[in-house]
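[step 3/7] fold_predict: job queued, chain A
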Amino acid sequence: MDEKALMGRLPERDRPWVMRTYAGHSSAAATNALFRRNLAKGQTGLSVAFDLPTQTGYDPDHELATGEVGRVGVPVSHLGDMRALFDGIPLADMNTSMTINAPAMWLLGLYGTVATEQGAELARCAGTTQNDIIKEYLSRGTHIFPPAASLRLTADVIAYTLREMPRWNPVNICSYHLQEAGATPVQEVAFALATAVAVLDAVRAGGQVPARRMGEVVQRMSFFVNAGVRFVEEIAKMRAFGVLWDQLTRDRYGVTDPRQRRFRYGVQVNSLGLTEAQPENNVPRIVLEMLGVTLSRQARARAVQLPAWNEALGLPRPWDQQWSLRMQQVLAYESDLLEYPDLFDGSHVMTALVDEIVTGARAELATVLEMGGVVAAVETGYLKSALVASLADRRRRIEAGSDVVVGVNRFTETEPSPLTAAGAEAVEQVDPAVEIAASAAVRAWRADRDAAAVDAALARLRADAATTTNLMTATLECVRVGVTTGEWAAALRQVFGEYRAPTGLVGGSASGGDDGLAEVRARVAATARELGNARLRLLVGKPGLDGHSNGAEQIAVRARDAGFEVVYQGIRLTAGQIVAAAVEEDVDLVGLSVLSGSHLAAVPAVLDGLRAACRPDLPVVVGGIIPARDAEKLRAAGVARVFTPKDFALTEIIDELVTVIRQANEL
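[step 4/7] structure written:
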């Protein structure tokens, strides 16, 4: 036996995981330059962030895209944009992940066409399309079509890649956003596996993939998970994921090859757990979260991307992304982690924790399947309500101090941070001219096409969508003739329709034990009496394309607990729709939630709409990731209050909303 084996080391050091940074902003050309810089710094894969118009199937000049173009990712409107995005980057040699869901087929078509233009063989191209629509209905909000139609698109992509792109992961079941929406480890595992079952059942029932090849489908399915700061629990969660996935694919789908049943996942550690207060604390949080998905060799991530320390403040700069990349590199290359077998094999503590999560997740998965599967659980609101309730419970624990968040609800005394001394310069700023340029560019692209060929391609897409034909062929034709992202999605909207997911607000309250709520409830009732109303009415609005609704939902739940009548119509509303609802429902206060950075466009549009509707007296408050300089501009424009992530005490926020109403009515 060699010396290394005697010392418990591996014969050879493990290869590191694929190292990525989640990147994209402003324009395809600017993002291409960022990709090149990151690759030169040692990044070993690409992870593409698309902007919200692209994710929800709109072109930059659409009304709903106002203020959103290039903010949370790169706008890709057509083949020309995709060419610019990957200019000079050999796709055949690159592992490329694309965080795209509702229009995943479209973006894969653009990617594959550019790869072919570069001379790459599609069979050599490796990467991932996230293509998990279920979690969009539950947490992230970039869905377009109803669940059945969306699963049909997912199954079509799987069948296509199995035939043409065998190294590609066509679907990346994403539990990441479930955790951000409130999921416990048990819920995260169970709901993600329920989604995987829905996808695999759709593929099996669709008839495009022979039964003998289901093992290949399973082998190409990957997962994308979240890792919180409770990193011991996260290690156990990932080991439990592997146990259940192995059993599920063997027993339900008859996959006999254990290599095909291996649980394969990438990770982005928890972004919403990062704090605006004392943001330097986010660095140790990120490192601890990274350990949760790397320490256990048996359950180690295949790819890792880390957020930047300042994501709670705004869009990270290239230097911030570099810092996150260096964290990975120090662990992989300076430490001895990759020299040893699994550190937790034989640990009775880890075994017990894994067994606990496996047992709970298996029971929760059975509950969802008994309801008819994950689609039924989405449509009835069961999953959304469960997540809203879990997140409300977590918020209650933070407010009560039983869950400590350093710098937020404990150890709040601090020295000024030199990292944020530059104020708004501590984050990347997106020039408003980006949107103007993108809108002009897409109009120029449309004008310089063969209109007849475009019309014919879109007509074929609509016709095929009305049948069971795989839509990838028609989609590729649309790519080649110059169809835009908005046109592709609009054609399918005409056939499939659009879908508004349940809000999840019908669930119970998690405000028990909040001593201050009774006092706020009394203020709400007293103010309503003074105004001559039965109840105070609050409109919670999500303008634009920002679908991250967790904060809005928690405010709505707590306001309802305090005695407000809450009007919440869900995500993706125009300023006109919000104004119309405020006037029609005769509300006492409008609360807007914007986390995408589009607040300086979205909020003034609502204020202007209220003035046009002769309701300039109606107070408006705003919550979101809003730099101090922008908050000043919003207040100058007429916003009564601005709340940011540092305002974590929900009952105190609701109390302040009552104060705003009283001041607006001179009570």
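[step 5/7] annotate
The longest strand covers residues 589-594.
The chain is about 50% helix and 10% strand.
exit 0
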